[in-house]
Amino acid sequence: METSTFVYDGDCAFCSRCAEFIERRIPTGARVLPWQFADLDALGLTEAECEEAVQWVGADGSRAAGPDAIARLLDDSAPVWRAAGLGLRFPPVRAAAWPAYRWVARNRHRLPGGTAACSLPQEARERLYGPTGRPADS
Predict the structure, then answer these.
(1) For the chain, what is the radius of gyration of the CA atoms?
(2) Once rounded to an integer, what is the mean pLDDT over residues 2-15?
(3) Domain count of the chain?
(4) Which of 54, 83, 99, 110 is deepest in the core (most CB within 10 A)?
(5) What is the pLDDT of residues 115-136, one digit of tens each?
(6) 19 occurs within a structural domain
(7) What is the CA 85 to chain-centroid distance, rounded?
(8) In-domain check, residue 136
(9) Which domain of life is it from (predicted)?
């Protein structure tokens, strides 16, 4: 793999807004893409892993999930963002980051930019909205 990849849930409006922020504000050489459009096999990821948390697959094959993936993304950026990534890896911060991340993941449909589809597992989203994200009966 030549480029590191940061994978998020493209069916979630909150996650997509966060990815847009990354693309606009955080200068990184990593690809930032929704898992629904990623070659998960080539990345060594599963749908279940991607539904559970954002994922980082480094160009060197390293992997991380959740706040650890965010820290790796920040590490691959400009100095001020690298400092934020270092802070996120600081043991007391990291210990608090995982419960906070899980809370956000469970409640992302309630957060700004979130939609009801954000709270559904992929199988249920596809059943209701189809693989394209549009309602199945339209």
Answers:
(1) 15
(2) 89
(3) 1
(4) 54
(5) 555 555 656 545 544 554 444 4
(6) yes
(7) 15
(8) no
(9) Bacteria
